[in-house]
Each structure stands twice: as C-alpha cells, then as structure tokens.
Amino acid sequence: MWRWLSQIPFASRISEWNRERTSWVLCEGVHANVRELNAQLASKDVPPRSAEHAQLVSHASLALDDACRVIDVGKHPRGRTASHVAAAQMHVNSARTMWLRTLPPEELAPHLPDLFAIIKQHLPHDDTRRIAAEKAASELQQACAANDAAHEAAGRHHWWTVTRGAGPSTPSVPELSAVLDAVDAAREASLKERLRAVNFARLVWLTAFGLFCLACGIAVAGAIWKSAVPLCFTPGNEIACPSRTASSSPLPSPGSVASPGDYAIVEIAGVTAACIAAASALRKVRGSSVSFGIPVALALLKLPTGALVAVLGILLLRGEFVPGLSALDSSGQIIAWAVLLGYSQELFTNLVDKQGRQVLEGVHGTADARTPRESVVPQATPTTSVPVSVPVPSSDGDRQPGTRTGEHSIHP
C-alpha cells in the first residue's frame, strides 16, 4: 500500500515517514555489514588452499545473499517488528564466521578483541567453550609475539642468527577453531536471549489486552446493572456516588441513586493517574537498538491496571475493609480516591517493570559487566629475559664468545 501511495503526487513524504517509522536504519546497518563482508570475500578471491576453504567461501557468499533477501522491508511481513533484521543478522554472523575460518592464524589475531567481546558478553566465566577459547587465544598471542621478536632480532643481526631449539610454534587449526566455536555459542546464547525478550513482550501485550477487555466489560456491566454493586457511600443523611450526591428523607437506596456512568467515571480517573505514572516511569527507560516493544508494552500495561485497581479499591472502601474510610462524603472524595488508587498500581506493575529491564539487559549480554575493551583478549604469560651466550664478532672478523642480554626470553 505504501508503494502505491508513493506514486501519488505529494504523497512521497507519507512513504518516507513510514520508512522512518519502521526499522529502516537497522536494515541499512545490515546492508553495510553485507557489503563489508562481500569486500572481504572478494579480497580472498585467489586459488583456494583446499576444497574446504573454497566451500567455506562459497557458503559465506550464499549466507550474505540470504541476508539481503530477508532484509527487504517492502516485501517482508515482519517489517514493523524488526524480526527480519534479527534473522538477516543471523545470516551475516554465519557468513562472518565462515570467512574467519578461512583466515590463517596471523590474520586472525587482529580480530581477537572483537571476537572475545562477543564471547565475554554472552558466555559466563565457567563455560568450557570460553575457557578453551581463552587458552587458544593466549597461545596465539604468545606465538605472534615470539614471531615478532624473532623478526626484530633478525633485522638487527641480519648477517647472523641465533637459534635455540625449535622456532616459535603457531597454534594448530583445531585450537583456533575453539575461538570460533565459542563465538558461535555466544551468538546462539544471544539468539536465545532475543527469543526470550520477544516472548516476554508478547506476554505483556496479551496481558494488557486482556486487562483492557476486562475493564471495558466491567464498565459496560456497571452501566447495565447499575444497582447491582453501586459505588455509593452513605455518610449521615446523604448518599454520595461518583456522579452525584443525593440527600432526602427518608434516604433512598444507593442503587436508585447510582447512575450508569459511575464505573466509567472511576475507571477514567484511574486510567488518568496510571498515564501519569507511566510517563514518570519513562525516566528509567534507556534507549535500545532492539525493537521488541517491551517499554511500550510495560507502559500500556499500567493503563488498564490503574482502571481496575481504582474500581477494586473503591469497592474495598465501600465494604469497610479500611477502618475509618468507610464513608466518603462527596463525589469529589470518591474521584480523588480513584485517582490515588489508580496511581498506586505502581505497587504491582513495578515488579513487571523490573523483570522487563532484566530481560533487556540479558539481550545486551551481562556475562561480564562493563568489561573494558583493552582487557578483552587474555594476556599472554609474562616473559623473563635471560642472558644467552652467543658468538660476537671481533675487530679482526673472528667470532669470539660473548654475552648479550634479552635476545631470548623464557616463560616461567
């Protein structure tokens, strides 16, 4: 429909407003990731080292094509909820992992900070996959540091080399695969957290809708059977109802004084107070890049809850449940208590708000809270310099035994 409106004169702004209202920014982010990975795969467009390498590159390209197919907002039915963005990001993550598996160890090392940021965000400390990944990353760092030291020493003493046993070793492919396997596990945990957030949002929406229908049903029933359970009080020689106050002698029954709109008046007062409570609760809501609608659902849940709490509270007061507050004097007092009771729904919905914040924090990942980027990758074991006896050239060209310090390092 929006594509048809875009063809009508002066209706292009409506189409642009609809695009901005949806997850267009998130879709463009996925497109940018796809283009970046396509460029990375194109740079690897060389004769493959093995059949497995060629298969990984081919499947990575197919995953990127699937991401582009899923991310189209105009054709996807989930454009409003942004679930197609999460699905496309899954394809992008799969392609990125397959591309990383094609890299040699020396090219994989610069990507370790980003990989370990994902691992530490979603996997706990005692996870065996995280422990194995940290061990493999530490060995890779040690090997790269040893290679750099060897190249630097060879540059300083280019006409002679010092060897001590075997050269620096590089972690094998299975060891490096532990890092990528841990990244896959972290992304799977992130997906489960997202599904949990989606289910929580759906549950809140259904609960809010059910309470809204219940509040409307109570208002309609109170209008039809106004004398069944009237919201009226009898202070002295008067009868006070939400809509009016009557005084006569002898006093009529409360049901005859009640009006069909009494329940609606109390519910409107409760909903108004609940709206103010929902607006004040926005100060605790922080922006999020995930479009699950949890903050909106929690805010709307307060409205029917406020209406129902106001009605139930007035009924408790009428039943002399609270000593000393059994007889309200006027309609204004009844409405004032309805406002107070409607705002007091925070006592019940605050627990749901806390659960919603925990769910959103789980989506962002809380395995390691506030982990600085500098300490993301496990540090290599510190080395200790020892003197190594090496032949030093003399002035006449003969090599004499001498001592140089720091040319080799050993691990304690």
From TrEMBL:
Transmembrane segments: 203-225, 263-282, 294-314
Segments for region (Disordered): 364-412
Keywords on record: Membrane, Transmembrane, Transmembrane helix
Residue ranges, compositional bias (Low complexity): 375-395
Highest rank taxon of the organism: Bacteria
Basic and acidic residues bias spans: 396-412
Protein name: Uncharacterized protein
Organism of origin: Actinomadura citrea
